[in-house]
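Reopening this one. Same input as before:
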Amino acid sequence: MGAVDVGGGRKAEGGPSWKRPRMAIRIDMTPMVDIAFLLLIFFMVTTVFRLPQAMEMLLPESDPDNPPPTTKIFKKKLLTLIVMENDSLAYAIGDDPPQPLPWDSLRPILLDRKDLYGDSVVALTKIHRKAKFESMVNVVDELNVVGITRFSIDKYTTWEDSLLRMANFQTSGPEGLPEPLWGDAQEE
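Same output, byte for byte:
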C-alpha cells in the first residue's frame, strides 16, 4: 500500500507568499516481499531437478576363489567390435580377420546379425584406451537401439594390435608382436 502524506502549506517567514507544501510518498513494501517469498517457495517446491545421465555399469566382482562361470558361445554368433586409437572402427565375426567398419554402417551390421541369430548374438567390444569416451557411448547406444542385450566391454590388448596389424590396419602397438593364429584366440 502506498500513502501520500500531504502537509499543510505555510507562509514562509518574512516572505509574502506561501511556500509550496512538500509531498512525502511512503510505499509499503510488505506485500511485494510476501509475493517474492511466495514465488520463491513455489519454485522450490515445484522444481524437478534433472537426473544425472550417467551410464550405469555392473561389473562382476573379482574373487580368485570363486571364478565366474564360463559360457560357451558359438563363433558365428560372436561379433567383435574394435575401436582403435584414432576412433576408427573394425569388426570381426567369429574367427574372421577384422574388417574396417565406417561408423554409419555399424547399425546395419548389428541389425543383420540380429536378424540372423536373434537374441543369441553376443557383441564383444574392445576399445583402445586412447579412444574417445564418446566412441564407447556410441557403440553401446547402437547396441541398445538394435536390441542386442548380450554384450561386454573388454580390454584392448596387444592381441588386438596383432590381429589388426595382420589385417593391414595401422596400429600404434609395438613392433614385433607375435602373429595370431586364426582360430586360437577365442576357442570356447
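So the earlier flakiness isn't reproducible anymore. For the record, Residues 184-188 have pLDDT under 50 and may be disordered.
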